[in-house]
Amino acid sequence: MRFDLTDLGLFVHVSEAGSITAGARRACITLASASERIRGMEAQLGTPLLQRQARGVALTDAGGVLLRHARRVLAEADALHGALAVFGSAPPARVRVFANTSGLSDLLPRRLPAFLRAHPDIQVETEEHTSEVIADAVRRGLCDLGIASDAADLQGLQCQPLRADALVLAVPAGHALEGHAPLPIACVAGQSFVGLMDEAAQQVLIERSLAAAGTPLSWRLRVRSLEDVCRMVGEGVGLGVVPAQVVRRLGRRHGLRAVPLTDAWTQRTLMLCMRDAQQLSAPAHALAEALRPRRAAR
Q1: Residue among 178, 172, 169, 142 at smallest CA distance from 254
Q2: In CA terms, which of 4, 131, 226, 279 is 20 to 30 Å from 248?
Q3: Could you tell me the pLDDT band of residue 1, with boundaries at 50, 70 and 90?
Q4: Which phi and psi angles does 221 have, rounded to 5°?
């Protein structure tokens, strides 16, 4: 039985995506090649690894065992690459980071460039997920580091605060609410809002929290990024619910003002999460150090 790292990486991608098509896309190989590799692995093993279903695939018992060991082997390979990189032209080491919307669109773009310039031998892969999914992924070893809200269940993880990440009401300059005292979002539920697309982690959090509170909002426009939300709010299209840090950074450019919200779900801290700091690869440890604040979380 001889499975190479490409086989194992493909199998992990297929397992996580729930389909061979999506797994092949993540692994950057053709669907035909992916299917052939999976069939070859099953032929070598002599038993199915995947159950083909109407919508995607599910792991067999054998597939579950292979997935656990494949993740371990790939993690060890990444650690080996990182350890050998200092001696010569070893392949770039990879660090996988899952982050919520604030982490992916605001924190990482400001902290990654300097790290990547200082470590040309390290590749960083990022994916956006809700904080709950991130916490589970870190526990299961699906990523090296997670950037998640402390509102999620982070039990069992090693976490450190990165910064405050409160959500605020974004209004255009000159709006009647400019300078208003903190208020619950129910006070503006009758107005139109600009939000992110349905699949965005922050939008999932907002709509789930609103539904739990019985406070639905009217979404007039959905856009792809937090900066697009700010731009549309500044143009008077509607109000927005965005991280306070984003308004501080983009408020002047787009003519925004922040109104604090009192709802408990809007009060958050962004956390750096890992399963075990002692078990991180050298590249993952270096990135974790670069992401940690140099002073108390802000």
Answers
A1: 172
A2: 131
A3: low
A4: -150, 140
First to last CA, the chain: 52
Rounded Cα distance, 247 and 243, in Å? 7
Mean pLDDT value of segment 48-59? 90
Q: At residue 56, does pLDDT exceed 50?
A: yes
Question: Both tokens of residue 182?
Answer: 């903190």
The token duo for 53 is 């279903």
Residue 144's CB is within 10 A of a number of other CB atoms, namely 25
Phi-psi region of 127 (alpha: psi -120 to 50; beta: other; left: phi over 0): beta
Determine the Cα–Cα distance for residues 138 and 128; give it in Å rounded to an integer: 13
Q: Which residues contact residue 180 at a Cβ distance below 8 angstroms, ignoring those fewer than 6 apart?
A: 259
- How many Å apart are CA 67 and CA 45, to the nearest integer? 14
Asked if 175 and 158 count as a contact pair (C-beta separation under 8 A), the reply is no
Domains of the chain: 1-88 (1.10.10.10), 92-163+268-298 (3.40.190.10), 166-266 (3.40.190.290)
Task: Give pLDDT tens digits for 192-234.
Answer: 999 999 888 899 999 999 999 999 999 999 999 999 999 999 9
Residue that wins the pLDDT comparison between 83 and 114: 114
Looking at residue 88, its pLDDT comes to 60
Report pLDDT for 295: 56
- Angle at which helix 108-118 crosses helix 282-291, to 10 degrees, equals 130
Q: What is the pLDDT confidence band of residue 65, given thresholds at 50, 70 and 90? A: very high
Give the CA-trace dihedral at 209, 215, 217, 222, to 10 degrees. Answer: 10
What is this structure's pTM?
A: 0.70
Dihedral sign from CA coordinates of 83, 86, 91, 94? positive
The tally of CA atoms less than 13 A away on the side-chain side of residue 6 is 10
Alpha helix ranges (H) inside 141-235: 201-213, 226-234
